Amino acid sequence: MTDHPETLKDLRHKLDGIDHRLLELIAERQATIREIVRAKRSTGFPLRDYQREREVFQGARAKAEAVGVSPQVAESMMRLLIRYSLTLQERNAVTDGRHGGGRRALVIGGAGKMGGWFAQFLYTQGFEVEIADPRAPAAANGKADWRDTDLKQDYIVVAAPLNATNEVLHELAARRPPGVVFDVGSLKSPLRSGLAALSAAGVQVASLHPMFGPDAELLSGRHVIFIDLGAEALEKARALFAPTMAEQVVMTLEEHDRLIAYVLGLSHAVNIAFFTVLAESGEAAPKLAQLSSTTFDAQLDVARRVAQENPDLYYEIQSLNDYGGESLAALSQAVQRLRGAVGARDRDTFVALMRAGRDYLTERRREADRRR
Questions:
Q1: Cβ-based neighbours of 26, under 8 Å, separated by 6 or more
Q2: Residue 156: which of 122, 187, 126, 125 has the closest Cα?
């Protein structure tokens, strides 16, 4: 008697069973990671071990090849699992640290995206968090105007648009709150006078720039920039991020804005120019989609995210940075050089531009790997 071949329904049922076992294995993996975290804490090991991650990736690729699975798929899967594990580790470290236990924090602009992130971040650490924002709901610890609070919080976070932030800093300087005051602005040039007023008034003042958006769940691999305005306030601000895996960078106000002109100003400008050219090209988006390439799709994805951001914030980043014109002028000159090389059929100049970029980006990658 011959065996009946498995039906499509049977095969799908079999696949469902495999998927369920995969999820059970992920749960088992997470349980093992919790044990590893406890061992790390007891021995003082850092939460993230880049050498161990490399070993995991190499092992996954080797095993994948042995069993006939794509090594790229195996590494991608392991990266996703490691990111998930790190997110849980970091979240638990922040919560278990209870850095804010018995203390208060005020987030001015706490109903906004970044303000909301900081409110949740501080709440997770055990702070009693108050939100002051005209959009704040009429609920406990929510006020429309920060002036209606007693300003006796241990930390006051100003997460408002840049011009509004500077005004708030000046008003806070006049009222001299006893706690640490810090802004989270993407630029510091427009905040010079407010920060200086706080320092002159003897207020503990710091200035932060979280190099991530409000959707960030994992801070490993992310940077938080701290502007050095005074040792005591600086260390208290940095302590808030001690339980996380964020990389902390300390620099001067001038250095920050000069570098941000390239890190944010240039990258935003390139993408704004890219989607502006497309929008004004007269080519319909569906037709371009039929001719997409790997490079085009990758650039389009970044440009799409930029286009969805707050245009007023992006205008501030471009227009209020004392060093912003430098990077925009450099971009214009680079485009002219490229255009000139192509128009003159100057292969040597074109190739030199490509090779110089390759060398620069290769060195940047090496530096990133060394820091790990």
A1: 81
A2: 122
Of residues 285 and 27, more confidently modeled: 27
Q: Cite the residue boundaries of each domain of the chain with CATH code 1.20.59.10.
A: 14-96
Q: Which two tokens stand for residue 250?
A: 């300390």
Condensed to tens digits (0 to 9), the pLDDT of residues 338-361 reads: 999 999 999 999 999 999 999 999
Q: What is the mean pLDDT of residues 16-35?
A: 91
The whole-angstrom separation of Cα 133 and Cα 178 is 21
As assigned by CATH, the class of the 98-251 domain is alpha beta
- Ranges of CATH 3.40.50.720 domains, the chain: 98-251
| Residues contacting 247, CB < 8 A, separation 6+ | 221, 222, 223, 224
Question: What is the residue whose two structure tokens read 């190099």?
Answer: 211
Q: How far is CA 342 from CA 187, 345, 346, in A?
A: 36, 5, 6
* CATH class name, domain 14-96: mainly alpha
State the residue for tokens 């799409």: 304
Which structure tokens are listed for 81? 């699992």
Q: Which of 7-16, 57-66, 78-87, 316-325 has the lowest mean pLDDT?
A: 78-87
Rounded to 5, what percent of the chain is helix, strand, coil? Answer: 60, 10, 30
Nearest in space to 212 (alpha carbons), one of 222, 226, 203, 202: 222
Q: What is the mean pLDDT of residues 172-189?
A: 96
Closest by CA to 94, choosing from 112, 75, 72, 117, is: 117
Share of the chain above pLDDT 90, in %: 64
Could you read off the pLDDT of 307-336 as tens digits, one per residue? 999 899 899 999 999 999 999 999 999 999
Residue 128 φ/ψ, nearest 5 degrees: -85, 110
Please report how the helices 8-43 and 71-97 are oriented relative to each other, as an axis angle in degrees rounded to 10: 50
What does the pLDDT average to over 243-259? Answer: 92
- DSSP letter at 190 equals G
**Which residue shows structure tokens 């409110």?**
119
Q: What fold characterizes domain 256-371?
A: 6-phosphogluconate dehydrogenase C-terminal fold (1.10.3660)
